[in-house]
């Protein structure tokens, strides 16, 4: 893949729409809503429940505005990445105690590694937890494997797991309790250096992914799957490549949070639940603005799921008590208020459905920038879809290798 051309094309498509994806809709309302083209909103308002769900899936029902249709088509094309095919099937004994998600990920990571790492003899895993990947790689490929994690309790469980399984000839797995950090770490850094060394980071949180890439400049093989992009900081963590620095996008904390919203299609039940959560949160925000304007934007916070199944007054009363606020309204008045603002809360929902269409593209921009950083460091780089997004939404893997 020509990462430079792909990044340049994506930034060209995304930059004109930064007023939509770089701002919080709710915190900036109603001004944030004014940034959306009127024909987009009119189209979205015309959708029925099924049409709203299709929009949430990135599809357009009916007759959408030409500009919206063209934009979504371009973004879908530019974020279409090749899939890694293949599964390294694990036995029942090997997957005992593992979740379906973890088993799915391990079977695909092992299949990815097998044809690409014939020259590898040692490996290091960042955030290795109980060492399941380390254990399976050591037994499958014969590697010496160092599993790094700062959670000593998880590592103790991993050691007991190894003892119970009684491998033939023993395991070459070493647990290291530590945090992988930027800067010199004399005890850890040598583990990342050497053409026969593999550096692996599965779901490295926020800037930890970049720390792994920097630590691994001397490695022969690197796999990184990032997550929690909302924990990144700009400009420290984006852009990181020279080419990316020449074609930057105006990422904000709100835009970074949006990158985590690229998810697989929701079921009807999941979509209905999302709509209910949004409706109560949006109505509560409008209520607090009307009765407590001096407070500005009031964060309602995450509520127990059961509250969203109740009438609005039950949810609102819980949130108001948590915040120490009292609008002097009865439950009947609270419920009536929610009914009175439904047209506005639906507009908020529709703006979110439109804004979410930028999520995957922004995520891919971050990863293309990282791919270019690795290319500029002399690696041969792939960017592939590895996991089923229904099980593991952050499913994009950066794979980098050097000649043996």
TrEMBL record:
PANTHER family reported for this sequence: CGI-41 METHYLTRANSFERASE (PTHR12496), METHYLTRANSFERASE DOMAIN-CONTAINING PROTEIN (PTHR12496:SF0)
Lineage of the species this protein comes from: Bacteria, Pseudomonadati, Myxococcota, Myxococcia, Myxococcales
Ranges for domain Methyltransferase: 101-233
InterPro entries: Methyltranfer_dom, METTL25, SAM-dependent_MTases_sf
Domain of life the protein comes from: Bacteria
Name of the molecule in the record: Methyltransferase domain-containing protein
Coiled coil: none
Organism field: Myxococcus xanthus (strain DK1622)
């Amino acid at each position: 893949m020509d990462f430079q051309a792909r990044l340049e094309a994506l930034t060209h498509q995304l930059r004109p729409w930064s007023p939509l994806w770089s701002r919080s809709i709710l915190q900036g309302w109603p001004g944030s809503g004014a940034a959306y083209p009127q024909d987009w909103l009119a189209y979205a308002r015309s959708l029925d429940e099924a049409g709203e769900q299709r929009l949430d899936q990135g599809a357009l029902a009916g007759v959408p505005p030409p500009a919206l249709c063209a934009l979504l088509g371009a973004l879908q094309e530019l974020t279409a990445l090749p899939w890694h095919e293949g599964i390294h099937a694990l036995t029942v004994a090997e997957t005992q105690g593992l979740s379906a998600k973890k088993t799915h990920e391990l079977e695909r990571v092992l299949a990815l590694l097998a044809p690409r790492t014939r020259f590898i003899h040692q490996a290091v895993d960042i955030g290795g937890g109980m060492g399941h990947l380390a254990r399976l790689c050591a037994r499958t490929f014969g590697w010496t494997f160092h599993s790094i994690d700062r959670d000593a309790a998880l590592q103790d469980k991993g050691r007991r797991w190894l003892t119970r399984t009684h491998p033939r000839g023993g395991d070459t797995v070493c647990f290291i309790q530590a945090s992988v950090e930027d800067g010199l770490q004399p005890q850890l850094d040598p583990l990342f250096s050497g053409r026969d060394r593999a550096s692996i980071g599965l779901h490295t949180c926020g800037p930890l992914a970049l720390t792994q890439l920097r630590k691994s400049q001397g490695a022969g093989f690197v796999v990184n799957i990032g997550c929690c992009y909302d924990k990144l900081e700009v400009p420290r963590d984006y852009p990181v490549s020279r080419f990316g620095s020449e074609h930057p996008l105006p990422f904000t904390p709100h835009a970074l949070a949006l990158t985590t919203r690229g998810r697989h299609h929701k079921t009807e039940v999941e979509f209905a639940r999302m709509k209910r959560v949004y409706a109560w949160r949006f109505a509560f925000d409008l209520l607090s603005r009307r009765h407590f304007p001096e407070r500005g934007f009031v964060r309602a916070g995450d509520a127990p799921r059961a509250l969203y199944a109740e009438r609005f007054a039950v949810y609102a009363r819980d949130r108001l008590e948590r915040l120490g606020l009292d609008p002097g309204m009865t439950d009947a008045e609270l419920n009536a208020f929610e009914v009175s603002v439904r047209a506005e809360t639906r507009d908020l929902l529709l703006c979110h459905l439109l804004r979410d269409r930028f999520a995957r593209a922004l995520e891919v921009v971050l990863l293309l920038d990282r791919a270019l950083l690795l290319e500029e460091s002399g690696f041969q780089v792939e960017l592939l879809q590895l996991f089923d997004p229904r099980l593991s939404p952050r499913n994009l893997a950066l794979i980098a290798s050097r000649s043996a």
